[in-house]
Each structure stands twice: as C-alpha cells, then as structure tokens.
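Appendix B. Chain record.
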Amino acid sequence: MKRGHADGNCFVLEYGMRFGDRLYNVDHSMIARNDIQDNTLLATSHGLHLESNTSDNIIESNNFENNFNGIAILSNSVRNRFWYNQLNKSDTQIGLLMGTDGTVWNNDIPPNNTVCGTPVRYYFMEDGLNLADITVATPLMSNLGQFIVLDSSNLSFSNITLSKGYSGFYLANLQNATFRRLNASANNNNFYCRNSGNISIFDSKAEAGNINLELDNVQNLHADNVTQLGGTYSVRLTSSNGTILNSTLSNATLYTLNLATGSQLELVNTTFHNATLNSDSVLNVSWYLDLAVECNLQPVESANVTVTNASGFIAFDGLTAPDGTIRNIRLKEYEMTPNGTAFQTPYNLSVSQETLGDYTQSLNMSRTTHLDVTLGDLTAPEITVEPTITPGILGTSTDTAWLNVTIEDTGVCPGPIADAEWFLSTTMPQIVNGTGFPMLASDGILDGSNESLTSEIDIAQYSKGPRTFWVHGKDASGNWCGWKSLSVNVVDDEGPRITGTVSYSPATVSTKLNEIWLTLTLDDAGLGDSKVTNAVCTAIDSVGISYNLTSLSVTAKDGFLNEINETVSISVDITALPHGIYAFYLKGTDEFGNLGTERNITVEILDGDAPAKPQGLIVIAMDGQVELSWTPNTEDDLAGYKIYRTMWSGSNYELVGTVGPNTTNWQDSGLENGRSYYYVISAFDDAPTPNVSPYSDEVSVDLKGSSDIVGSFWWVLVSAILIITTVFVIFFRKSRNKSPDPPIPEDNNNKTG
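Structure tokens predicted for this chain:
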C-alpha cells in the first residue's frame, strides 16, 4: 500500500492470528485513530509491523491493547512517525527492531507515547538504536518476551527493568548489541539470546528466573559485573562462546553453569557454585592478579614481573607502571572438560629490579589476589658532604669536638637514613658494622633520605698528633655505605702545670743581687705530653705595678732537660726591681712555647744599695776643735751621715759622730793643739739594716792654737761658707718636703767641744 490512508479503522483479529496489521514495502501512509487489539503475534509480527523499506508513514493516536507479543516492529524502515499512541494492558513493550545492516534511521518516536499511562522515551543514534530508561512491571501473557529485539545491529540499551514475564529479554539475530544496567527478575528466562554475535552485558542483575541467562548459538558473549541469583540454572549455554568477568553466579537449584554442545565459557574473577558440561564443552576459570611493587614505601617503576604456571610456561611477562602497579593479570586456575579438570596452579611469581632485590612467591590463584610486593633496597647511601670537625683546629685543651657529615640515599627508591657511626683508626676500620660510635641526626630524628648527622667527641682523651676519623652510614634497608675518612691533627696547646713547692734562693734577696734562682717542678703529663723547657715570671709589687722578668738560664735537676716532668732551677733577672715585697707569678713552658697554669710565691727584696760616697768634705782648725762640712747627698732614702776620725792617715778610723740627712756640718771639740787629725765621713740609708756608703775622701788638720792669725782668718772665712751652705741645704730639703733631721743619739765615741 502506497500513500494509503487508514483512519478510524479497527483491526480485530481472533486469538492466534499471525498479525494484526502489517505494512510491507509501504510508504507515505497514515494509520491513525485505530484500535489494534487482541492479537497473538510471533517473533517479528506484533500489533503493528512496519518492515521491508516501509518509510514516511504516520502512526498516530492509535490504541494498542491486548496484543500478545508487543506493539510495533520497525525493520529496515526509515522516517516513520510514531506519535501519541497508547499502549495498554498487556501491550507493555514496544519492540523497535532495526535491519541487520542498520538501515533503520530517522524514525520519529518522541516521548509522547505511553505504556499504561507512563511516558516511554526512546533515543536514536545515526548508526544504531539507543533505548534507555524503560521499566516494565506488568505481567505479559507472551511466551516470547517483554523486551524483544530481532534482526538488528549496533544497538545500545541501558537502565531497563523487567519483571514477572515469560522472557524478560528476548533477543535474536543481533550483532553488536550492548546492554547496561539491566534488571530482570521473576521471568521464566530473564535474558534469552539466540543466533547472535558480539553481545555485551555490563553492570546488570538477573534473579529468580528458571534460567537467568541463556545463550543459544551466540558467539562472543562479554559479560562484566553481572549478578545471577537463584533459578534452576544461573547460566546455560548451547553452542555458544563467551566470557563472564567480575560476576557472581550462585544459588541455582540444579547447576550454576550448564554448558552443552561445544560451548566454551571463560569465567574471570567470577564465583559460582557448580557446573555441568556436555559433549565437547570447555569451562576455563581464571582470576586476576593485581600487583603493587614498592621499596621504602615508594612505588617501583619498570620492575620486571614474570608469572609462570605449574608447567613452567610463562603466563605473564611485563613491567610495572610508574605507580608501581600491574593490574588485572589474568591467570587461569583450571580448565574443565567433560573428561576432567586440568589445573594450571600453583603459579610462581618473580619480581625484580636491576638495583633492588628479588621477590618470589608461589600463588594458588583460587581467587582474585591483590599482592603488595616489597623489594629490598640494595643500593647503599652515599656520603655527599665530606666529614668535617668543629672546631677546625683541635688542641689538647679542647674538651669537645663535633664530627659532622651528610649522608644521602639515592637510587630507584631512596629510603630514610637509619644509622651512622664513626671510628678512630690510622687505617680503614675492620670492624663489625654497627659497633662504632653512633652519630645523631642534627634535627633530632632520622626520617629522611638526606640527613645531616653529628657526633660529640671527647677530644680531651686523645694526645697530640695526627688522627684519622672514619665515618659511614646505612639506610633503612640495612645497606652500609663505604667509609669516608677525615684526617685531623691534634696540636699541643697546653703548657705544663707547676707541682709541688716553689722556692727561691738565696734566702735573703736585696737589690745588691742581679738575679735569684727559682726552683720548681714542671709537669706536662696529660697536657700535651711535651718536654718542659722553661718558665716565665712576672713580679707584681705591693701597689700593683707589674714587671716582666727575664729568664737568664734554666737547669734541670738531673742535668738533662728532655722529659715531660722536670724539676728545674730558673734564674731571673731582678736588677730592674726596687726593694720591696713582690708576688712572683710563674708559668711553665713546653717545647712548643705553651704557657701552663700559674703559681705564685712571695719574695721580699731588701734595699741593698748604699748611698753615694759623700763629697766636698772640708775641715777648719780652731783652738782645741775643728769644724767639718760637706756637700749633702741627694738619695731619697738617705738616713744620715757618720763621722770618723783617726790620728793615723788611712787607718784606725773611729766613729765620732752621727748626724741626720739634713745636717752637713759638725764640730769636733776637746782636741789637743799641736797635733794632726784625719777625718772621713760616710752616708747611710734607712734600710732595716742600713746600707753605708764608702768613706769620703780623707781630710786632715793641724791644731796650732788660738794666736794663729792665719787660723783665725781661715776660721772666719770657713764659718761664712758653712753658714751659706747650711742655709742652702735646708732650703733644698724643704723644697723636697723632707722632714727635719731626727735627733741623733749621742755617739759614745763622739767628742764634742
């Protein structure tokens, strides 16, 4: 029928007729406002069947009711409009069928069609059909199916729920059909497919059917994440091949799996209860092995992974990804045939990496296995910053030094530094690792692959000389790096101590001496152990004035100055020291010039310097007496003068008088006229034991009597000179704040007139 018109017609066919209305090779027709009801239709003949190049037809506002197998079939048809039709009662599914070569396209089936009053949506792709979001929950009387798709290819279905029908999904003669998120329950056959190829089912569930999934002459089934619960059979295959992955097949009353007539099925990561195989059918059961390879808690990239089966056949050979993993290694547990079961297990897993350790394990593979593999780190860390020591110069006086080093673990998977140690040896240590002196992390905790470490060293326990410190460390895997050396020189920077008693000689010291001898014991043991050589001496007087004294010579008690402990006598020059009480501070020295600890001794230096020889002594003769006068001395410590007389020139001087420092004349009376007398004087100081100057030049006088004119004349002249001199001396001493002469005790030998 071309360009026909059927308006308001009622197609009423008795139960059991082939089809209600069939448009075959028809175009540009309109079927509208008709009642199509009570039809029993088979396979490709439903309530309304458009096929064989039927195109450009309008199916609008029709009422489909009580049709046994469905409503409409589009086979090899294009540009048909299916609008505002009502599908009631048993008419709860529209089978939209496409031609085997995908020629059905541009059919207009908008969402204004309803199923039992509920709008049904259909979506199209240019190269195939896409149906989604369909729910059928009303029982059908059909013995074929609620959702029927025949003779079509390149199909996509999703989110379809079917329950309580004879066959939930009835599929035949399909190619490249994909089903997602299907839910079929309580149908006789929840999912039935025959004479088809490349059928894919994802994320779906079928339960409580006589047979949840049945395939008849289907090539290449791919089912992933499918749950089959209950029923007589969960899965039954006849002359079909396929793979079911990541699924659960359970609780069947007879067999979970039934494979007949040369069927082949592989179960991957799928659990099932039991199976029966007929004829030459084959069931392969495989599981996934997931690996995560790490070292020091870090993923290992490009690790070699090899899996061999029980016969030594390599089932897998590959490398880990950058994240250290290999996912979904498919390993067959066994192959089942009607003749028996052949196991491939146990498998042997081998994991290795060039710079890391090897790992092997036997795998039973009776279920999907996730395995975390830890490879040992075989790469030792490195000392990246050469060892140093603080302070940079070490002396025998140094109490503590700090040995510092930086260690870094490099390689494929650097791990934390776990330990470091040092050892003191002239050669590379031959010791058991871990028995040296420990080092600590500078930041307080060893937790990184790059660590600065330090160790406190009691350097005071080591004597002077070259030393070699050896340092090495290990990572968390126990790999010790090689030794690194640090050569240092411990120098003697300590002087000897002074032990025992310090003494001096002579016992009485005065300014008359040029030197004194100090006797002391010098000991450098434990202070560098160097030979002692000398001592330095500083004298400090009572008012704090310091004098550095020169050491003139040093003499060892045993005669040889070549030991670290010596008793020595040291002469020091004291010529620069005025008389007084001094503290002599002594420090010993060693062969390197190091000064030791200080000791002191008190030395009193007496005044040993006599005043100068008096000058200008003259004598004037008078009647029975003489007048002596002299030039005054200028010493600060001058205490006075002593006058001596004799009657024999140059000898037998007798002390006849003593005067104070400010007196420069003296009379000697009670003498006999007509005799000759000789006089000298000396000056003395205020020392506890006064120091006396040498005698002055001797003067002489002859006494001739009072009538001696010449004597009288000279007496007058000398008296005048003495008066002038006395006035001058008194003035001079007062100008120097000198006190008057103290009274001089009468000298028993002094004869005055």
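Further analysis of this model is presented in Appendix C.
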